[in-house]
Please model this.
Amino acid sequence: MKTGTMRAFLILCLILVALAGAGCSSLGVQPWERDLLSAPGMQLQPDPVVTALDDHIYFSKEASTGGLGGAGGGCGCN
Model:
């Protein structure tokens, strides 16, 4: 590439990096946003009973216990 084209490309890359970095502000969660984030629907497991039933159905059909922290599989070889 020519020097002028290379310089323009470098400036464009620097502008893109600056714009991408501007979106990563460290403001955190504002106090008025915490009520929405703590709603039951925002939890990883909004309903523990439904989650337990889904896990039971999964390991019953797969003939193994899912990776919920315990080692092993359905073959009994551990």
